[in-house]
Amino acid sequence: MIKKITLALVAFFTLTTHLSHAQSPKAEKLKREVVNSVESNYEALTDLSDRIWSFEEIAFQETQSSAALADYAESLGFTVTRGVAEIPTAFVAEYGSGSPVIGILGEFDALPGLSQNKVPYKSPLNEGAPGHGCGHNLFGVASLGAAAAIKEQIESGELKGTIRFYGTPAEEKFFGKLWMIRAGLFEDVDVVMDWHPGPETKTAVQKGLALVDFQVEFFGQAAHASSDPWNGRSAGDALELYTAGINYYREHVKPTVRIHYHIQTAGEVVNVVPDYSRIWVRVRDSSREGLIPVYERVQAMAEGAAIMANVDFKVNLISGVHEILVNRTGSATLQQNLEKLGPISYTDDEQDFARKIQEATGKPQIGLVSKIEPMEETLENSMGGSTDVGDVSWVVPTIRLSATTAPNGTPWHSWAVVAAGGMSIGHKGMAYAAKALSMTMVDLFTNPELVKSVQAEFKEKKGDYVYKGFVPEGPPPINSKLQ
Amino acid sequence: MIKKITLALVAFFTLTTHLSHAQSPKAEKLKREVVNSVESNYEALTDLSDRIWSFEEIAFQETQSSAALADYAESLGFTVTRGVAEIPTAFVAEYGSGSPVIGILGEFDALPGLSQNKVPYKSPLNEGAPGHGCGHNLFGVASLGAAAAIKEQIESGELKGTIRFYGTPAEEKFFGKLWMIRAGLFEDVDVVMDWHPGPETKTAVQKGLALVDFQVEFFGQAAHASSDPWNGRSAGDALELYTAGINYYREHVKPTVRIHYHIQTAGEVVNVVPDYSRIWVRVRDSSREGLIPVYERVQAMAEGAAIMANVDFKVNLISGVHEILVNRTGSATLQQNLEKLGPISYTDDEQDFARKIQEATGKPQIGLVSKIEPMEETLENSMGGSTDVGDVSWVVPTIRLSATTAPNGTPWHSWAVVAAGGMSIGHKGMAYAAKALSMTMVDLFTNPELVKSVQAEFKEKKGDYVYKGFVPEGPPPINSKLQ
Amino acid sequence: MIKKITLALVAFFTLTTHLSHAQSPKAEKLKREVVNSVESNYEALTDLSDRIWSFEEIAFQETQSSAALADYAESLGFTVTRGVAEIPTAFVAEYGSGSPVIGILGEFDALPGLSQNKVPYKSPLNEGAPGHGCGHNLFGVASLGAAAAIKEQIESGELKGTIRFYGTPAEEKFFGKLWMIRAGLFEDVDVVMDWHPGPETKTAVQKGLALVDFQVEFFGQAAHASSDPWNGRSAGDALELYTAGINYYREHVKPTVRIHYHIQTAGEVVNVVPDYSRIWVRVRDSSREGLIPVYERVQAMAEGAAIMANVDFKVNLISGVHEILVNRTGSATLQQNLEKLGPISYTDDEQDFARKIQEATGKPQIGLVSKIEPMEETLENSMGGSTDVGDVSWVVPTIRLSATTAPNGTPWHSWAVVAAGGMSIGHKGMAYAAKALSMTMVDLFTNPELVKSVQAEFKEKKGDYVYKGFVPEGPPPINSKLQ
Amino acid sequence: MIKKITLALVAFFTLTTHLSHAQSPKAEKLKREVVNSVESNYEALTDLSDRIWSFEEIAFQETQSSAALADYAESLGFTVTRGVAEIPTAFVAEYGSGSPVIGILGEFDALPGLSQNKVPYKSPLNEGAPGHGCGHNLFGVASLGAAAAIKEQIESGELKGTIRFYGTPAEEKFFGKLWMIRAGLFEDVDVVMDWHPGPETKTAVQKGLALVDFQVEFFGQAAHASSDPWNGRSAGDALELYTAGINYYREHVKPTVRIHYHIQTAGEVVNVVPDYSRIWVRVRDSSREGLIPVYERVQAMAEGAAIMANVDFKVNLISGVHEILVNRTGSATLQQNLEKLGPISYTDDEQDFARKIQEATGKPQIGLVSKIEPMEETLENSMGGSTDVGDVSWVVPTIRLSATTAPNGTPWHSWAVVAAGGMSIGHKGMAYAAKALSMTMVDLFTNPELVKSVQAEFKEKKGDYVYKGFVPEGPPPINSKLQ
């Protein structure tokens, strides 16, 4: 099957190359216009990004951030539907009608504990508060900026079809897109685009990892730990035996698998046999297919641990994501636009800021690197992170960008990303992303053959698989106490 | 050595019996008067107890409770020294001068999470708030009531000497008396008395358990649990291996030893190799002598766990207590006064309330039992709880009472104790304790031979041991984050 | 219930005392004669003991030892039935007929690895071979000697009834008496006597411990530990998680419980995920009643461990024993005979030998101590060893003796016991035991009231309990590979 | 550095291709003659192989197998030195003199427990005895056959230089070649060849894994597990905590690392706290460089476990091997000879036998596959087995062959390899290997440029590394009890 796919890819490449040569003068013109649109809105977009940066709102609590984006879209003339998919901070902003329907994703949640000033050394703005350590303040804004540029062309009649911005909350925890997919919000879309802030500028063609999050709760019987521990059945013991089981199991998983856990509680006081414990478990693999049997095994172990400690147990699925179904046809189009745009240029002050961050984080002090690398080969097993964009990519063909918003080598999910994302380095990356995305959407709107090719690759790679998200029954865990 | 002590005890008994027969008519009269004093102050004492009950203040945070007791003492004419031993809520209230100096201990801290209404079924007053699940609202008040009764007799010239009330905070956690001993506050006392609320009325002649509390912290290196766990050194692993070591060690401790622990943190999020973990460990044995080698062993294990997980570690002594050095001579005198007082009598409503509590806690519905049992034999190895009165008992001869403040069979440290301690059942036990304590203090003040005998037994039992408390260097952990 | 038993015991004591005062001159005469009988057979008994000592045969392999005893009994005129209870080395030797039927137990198995010369320092006779480290070479011979003395009196018409010697193999492992009980061999006996070699001379009135032995086997799937460990399911992991479970469980058993295990195999080579593992587990408690729930718990854990490691498992009961049902009425009679006999006297050479053993084993060099101590109180929870005599004691009233065959303080199951048991120190203890046992049997044969009282105590203590041995279905494990 | 090597490889390839085109007619002629030599000795070689097959001798005990090969070499005129490197079963057989010196390796040890008849279903020849489950009966013989073919050409003056056969014992355990290298036996060799039986015919250009074997012993204090376990310090606990540590550590090693262990003993009986335990640990990684820090970590853990269980410990290096330093220049030459030889052809009976084996081992029944695949790319991280040829390859440039001696898909180290290696399938592979090896040696003897190129690649890849074998001080573990 791998061989078959490889052949197919060759075919796509050929086609893509052909299509790209066919770029019309109209497309060229429209690309210049969307780039201009982004530039003319630069101040508004920057201001919006800085406000979201300062809101510092974490997963499912992004009330102000979501409202700021939705309000802005509304002010531009988009039709906005708020609180979709039973999630107060999820929304859809749409403009135009008919085919094609091109979607674009925008995230805006922060990470706990990373609050930081806009300085190139660690310095919390609000000690202990969240911060945009993943650059999502830029993410949502750039995507909306790109959508706005396209909207202008639809409005002026240059483009036909529908542009739809998805305000997608809770990417860092819980994975909000899962419920948006479940609610059917992606059913009529032809192609989706997204991007992500990063230390490099490139088309994003690696799969990342599939993962599943679940909790195990153990329920025992409390007893005084000194007077009559023999009357206690320890939920703490069950949890510890469970983790022992997981660690022994590590020998028996493939090298692409990762299992990690967070002991959330294993008792409250020292002198009582604990009657309750809870652990958050995450299983990852380079594909959902490899993930499933490991997930089932680690779930099953909970019963074993419960039997050993003579307690009851409960396993709760939290959520999980698929690996990215990479679309190389769409990526190749994006790559051309990157090459057309060329690298971001930086001032000496920005490079100085970057080198100070690199110094503070122990990285080579090479400053910002924004040159456009050739499109990478898609590896069978990539490592790195996971994202709920993975799920979207199994439902709609998805084209992904990475744009430079922080110095080369910056450890992600750190104060350094917050710092750079709050000043001109981040702003420039955000604007760059808005341009590259809108240029590629121009290709999608003006070239029906391209959309067909993108969809054909998607269908071939998806094969027989019927998408099923890792989503528990019931409403999204907006006010979950599972923390 | 055991045989020698046994012989000595026989001698004390004989002496005690003799002394008790020698009770003077004056003592009899004074005992009647101190009993009357308690009764005449019943309303004030009850009010004070109910206020402390409603303050619900936990260890080292008993600001209002401490002030209420100290203010009351001051209002009665005691000389009050607040904030002793570097503890804001510790105080001493004294009256009179010269020999003998008789001390009496009063505790007043509550327990977390036990807030409860004055009803015979579980019903939190303030959900999640602390509650007086150990009856310390009654404890401090009764002791102060007894001191007040004695103070009246000193004031009127009937008794000579000094009565000193110790306001002792943080008995439930940290053990405040340790720092009061360290500050030298018990150096000039002849005999100390105390009591404890309970489900029975008796002289308290069991040793309880010695214990020591300490924390182990592990310091590793964080890493992304999926991308590069091999760059992480897990403080969580160290903690888990440490508890494994403790559990394997259980086979190799004597049956009187108990080891329990509370995992305080073993990481904060699921996808990071944790760089910090902390565990609270408690080791108990029926004596400090047996405790020490186990304590040393469990401390030493921390290094082993740290080596295994390639992390750093730190062991912090929190505090600890000695088992009670029981004074049977003094106890025998107290026993006589209990027999003289006879049991507490209850109304039908109180018995009904008691039976409802027993029903709700799954105990035989036999109501309140307050009859006076014969003085028990002191067992070589008793089980049950631990108290920092243990340390006082190795510094000064200590005579201890248990008085009924809750229905027979009530699980201690539970909502049921809070409920009963906030209404007449608790009040009656408190008044009873104040009477029994002040009557016994009359014996101590009027009979110098008794004091000598009590001290002789203390010295013989203490032998060569030079008291050393389980107290770390530096100030008491008033604002400790070690939780 | 405890109180009731205590009262009953008082009654028995009174009765016993009464009975003992009623000793007839005839009994006195017969006691002198049985003592003479033992003395006149001293050489033959000594020779027999030395032969069994040199056979060094372990559990269920005592072919020569069993034959030597059976042949000797046959040569004396006993009717011998060999190979009873499906055990080749078990036999019964009987003389006389009718009531009472008095049984006496004789063990003769050795312990692995304890071979030793008859010298007071460690010096293996046959390196690695078994040795009589529990003194059973003396045990069987003394009991048979006592039976022979009684047989002479029956033969001469002085006593009426039946004397029956039980040749009971495999006491050290597997517990042969269980199958002898299962075969009904104790159904018609009135009272049983036995003794055990030891470092003291006394009536044996402690309960010892109940225990149960079982094995857990885990069955996984082998795989190359380097190439594809993910295709392996590790029986070794299951075993290790199982022991982890046991060790965590130690916190939750009463102080009288002991759990220990022997990992028999957890894999054969380093580079294969093991598909088989096996562990021998022993659970003990001071009573069968306490034992059962722990036994069930530890068995149940095996399923938990199997689930955690994704393997199959099997639990095999090996065998187990009851604690001793102590008969204080019978013991009191034995005590009188001990006092009548007085202590064993030793030569200077024997004392010198004893002190050398004490020196070599790090004990106080006080030599042999054989004075007769007063009968001990029977403790609620005694510690120490376990024996399958426990099971006999729940089927027939059993009176037990301990006689000195090794220096005070000698660690049992050691080379020192082998050394002393092979020379005159052991021989003297053996002869002493034969005398004390036969004297007490004279009491049983001549005093029907005594037998009734002994049986009455037995019935009262046994209560409603219907004896059920810890014996698996099927034949005894004579050729078991469960090692 | 990787890039540099890649460039270098390109250079080698070019060179190699060039060299191969330069093959002289003389070389062609000699290749035909060495092939004829192998064919004419087919019966003798087959007989020798079958004898070694029937000797079934395991590591360091290959007395008969070694003698049979050495005798045969001697009978052919080789100069044989037996018992080299302090190993009785290691020998060197040499012929000729001067440059080049070409070595060839021959192994001959069997594997425990794999004895098997020459039938296509599992059927032990000698139940429990060893068997040639790795095909080493063929290995040594084919290599000697190839050496003999070269020797004939040297003897006849067609080739100049030295041919040297290394009789290398103990490849399956302990790794005999390590001590042969330590003894300097490879110091003057230009190029070494070897081969290995397998289910495919190809040049062997993967690295395999580096590994290190060591033992950890723990020394505690025995105690009766029931009477006084608190006096015991358990070596068993230490071992179990040690394995727990290893299993927790698995999260923190790179995906190429493998750690496995064999619990050799953790106590002998159920009722004694074990005072001794021993575990055999193996650490592997795709390179020695990656291996070392893991090896050091796992060693260090032993101290941690010892501290936790309060016992002493000792770590003993057993031995270990390097990954293969692959020589692609030499491999390319070998590849040409394979292509010249073409695949092995099989009879219907042989294919039938093969399919029956495939059926019995659950593999696709496709029979024997012997076609010559193109030379593989050398992977950065290959998985699979380890061999002490790895160490030779870091000391001398080494060219390696795999030849078909068992059906496709056969699980190695299984009865199926024994069966096929004892009949014509194995014999054919053996003869094929002898031909391919001798043909390639003809190239090495006749083409000095080839030898230079092979050595140049070796030097470049080896770089600065100064070889150091994983060999403990002292003599080889010939009679080791470390099992």
Describe the structure.
Four copies of one chain form a homotetramer. Chain A has 483 residues and is of the alpha+beta class. Chain A has two domains: 2-208 and 323-462, Aminopeptidase (3-Layer(aba) Sandwich), CATH 3.40.630.10; 210-319, 2-Layer Sandwich (Alpha-Beta Plaits), CATH 3.30.70. The first copy, chain A, contains 14 helices and 13 strands. Chain A has helices at 2-21, 25-40, 42-55, 63-76, 136-155, 177-182, 235-249, 288-309, 328-341, 348-360, 389-393, 415-421, 424-446, 448-462; strands at 79-82, 91-96, 101-107, 162-168, 191-198, 202-203, 210-219, 223-224, 258-265, 272-273, 276-285, 312-321, 398-404. In chain A, the strands form three sheets. In chain A, strands 1-2-4-3-5-13-6 form a seven-stranded mixed β-sheet. In chain A, helix 5 links the parallel strand 3 (101-107) and strand 4 (162-168). In chain A, helix 4 packs parallel to helix 5. Chain A is globular. Mean pLDDT of chain A is 93; it is low at 1-21. Chains in contact: A-B, A-C, A-D, B-C, B-D, C-D. At the C-D interface, helix 7, strand 9 and strand 11 of C face helix 7, strand 9 and strand 11 of D.
Low-confidence stretches of chain A: 1-21
Give the overall form of chain A.
globular
**CATH topology annotation of the largest domain in chain A:** Aminopeptidase
Largest sheet of chain A: 7 strands, mixed
β-sheet strand percentage of chain A: 15-25%
Oligomer: homotetramer
Spatial separation of the terminal alpha carbons of chain A: 41 Å
Mean pLDDT of chain A: 93
The topology string of helices and strands of chain A comes to HHHHEEEHEHEEEEHEEEHEHHHEHHH
The total domain count of chain A is: 2
- Under the CATH scheme, the architecture of the largest domain in chain A is 3-Layer(aba) Sandwich
Number of helices of chain A: 14
